[in-house]
Write a structure and sequence with these properties.
17 helices; five-stranded parallel β-sheet; about 475 residues; alpha/beta; 14 strands
Length: about 475
Amino acid sequence: MSFKKWTWRDQNSGTHWLRVYLSVLAITLLVWFGQLYQRHERVRTNSGTVQLDSVVLQGDAIQGVEVMGAHTDGLLSRMYHDWKHPAAHQLNFEWFNHERVPPTIRPLQGLVHPHLLQPMRYFFTQMPPGEFRIFVEDDIDEKPLDSGPCAKLFLKEFHKRVAKDNPYAIKFGAELLIPLAVRASAYSTPDPTKAHLFLVASCIIGQGQQGHHIKVTARTVQEQHHRFWNDGARHAFVLTGDHGPCLLFRERMGENEFFRNKVKRWHDESIRNATFLMNEGSLHGGCYDPTKDFTVPTTVIHTNTKPVCAPTVAKDRHLVFMSGLTSSTVRRRLVDRLQDHPDVFTPTERVLHEEFLCFMAASDFCLCPRGQAAWSPRLEEAIFMGCIPVLIADDYEPPFSHLLDYSQFSVRVAQDDAHNVVEILKTISDSQKIALKTNVQRVQGLFRYTSLLAEHDGSDMTPAILFQLWLKFGSHPYQQSYS
């Protein structure tokens, strides 16, 4: 094989210059399309309203809230986040009013990440029966979930909650309530051979170190249904302890740079491939993996009925509500800085939980700082009472963060800027606060659980959890990891 030697005559030939012209033209077109795409990415509005199909969104809410350099993108700025997905080009919300759409999903127009609109529409309005099936596994088959030791433990703690006014006695109850809700749904199957997913009902409800019990449960599941185990890739566990499958690890230590980057020990390595539904969404320590796990609300809200607040409480409004144990450095700093601040209300003595909630309802913003773990039940309480939650927990994914655009109904403040949180919140305009509060009310159903003694009717978090499980385990073109 011989090659022609390149000469200056070749460079000056007409063919060469034609190629140069076409190359320049192609580069120009690419730059022009790139600028057009960036212009779409930067779509924002600072005033007025924007009409998106059947939904009208206030411009201040769409823009999002700039918090000390940590910008939370709004809906319009993310419309073209995934330009390959059809939902990114056409935001059609009409299907939210379909009769098959559960009541807690209908208000989410404009609050769901745009790239999920297409799969949500298919799941809730078009998917034929039987296309997705879940087998709920009791850790011990001879003791049924709804009447066995787990239910008895839950009811014992539930009655303690009422008798002793301890709302957090059952904050780990999702380990029972989620499997029960899934079992009562149309997606449950008693036949493991037809299941796409195996949901393991491992009930600890905060009793001791959760991982120790999980080790026993995992061994039991593997022995009873070993032919379906497959390294746990098709199994999901509900782990609502502070650190899920890992050893107990206080976040006070986690605030130290050395310990924050330290990988925590697991109780049982055999379940590493399983999916976890967790309260704790901290990205440190290796317990929560956002590519396969997802976070769920804690079980402090079991009712639609809000407490009747005294007129004096309702009239005495505050900008910021803050309460909770000083169980972390962040909380101690907040207390030291804000306990006497005129714009911050903090109960000076123990009050009944209903009165506690009324104080939250009388505030514009409710602080939700990290404690012994990144998550806090303050988030669910704030949303229940219509107070704008202020998340102060770095590298933390709150419940349903894969599904919801949190910038539409909450504010995030970096831990290093927590001492300036009041000044930061004062920069949020009245119209922004109105939009955020309106959206808080629209997501309330997703942060509520159905009581053990009530029927499941789709008016709680169940539909959102089922959708996320289907998105991960179902056979469909939308299958993806969560990262």
